[in-house]
Amino acid sequence: xxxxxxxxxxxxxxxxxxxxxxxxxxxxxxxxxxxxxxxxxxxxxxxxxxxxxxxxxxxxxxxxxxxxxxxxxxxxxxxxxxxxxxxxxxxxxxxxxxxxxxxxxxxxxxxxxxxxxxxxxxxxxxxxxxxxxxxxxxxxxxxxxxxxxxxxxxxxxxxxxxxxxxxxxxxxxxxxxxxxxxxxxxxxxxxxxxxxxxxxxxxxxxxxxxxxxxxxxxxxx
Length: 221
Description:
1 helix; 4-stranded antiparallel β-sheet; globular; 18 strands; 221 residues
């Protein structure tokens, strides 16, 4: 597992590498963290040892200099290690919410409501929980890439619709007003020429990745 993430606090990139594997049954895991400066030059790797675990996904992000990602304890891969609120990957997701780590957990059978868990205190592992009812249910294959600048929680489909005539919507939930709005993205999912150009016509499941507040930048690594 190798991640490269940008740290806004230090204004640099960090490389995170899992040196050992939980399948080695060593009783611990060894990680290496390298901070990259300008021009890609890195500092001496720092090694960190933790209890063994299995990463849930390859997605992680930095908040205030800390790298967060979801994982399961080695015992049957059932006990969450990073946070107690992480359920099965398809039913929960980690996001950054107002500068804090948060998790959105929903009912796996019907996406008509969701729980918002917020890590209020990192050292004390203090979490707050709020439950929100949606004005109308969303499709099950939804994920949340995070929030926009106004604090609205973004919900987006994980896949493009198979039918090119079916519209593609991104949803924005306002926590304060407890309402939701939708924005249709035109020219991608509903455009035959676009799909044909990139060979998406015959694909049954076309994954979608949306990055909130993304600004294109070129960095030398």
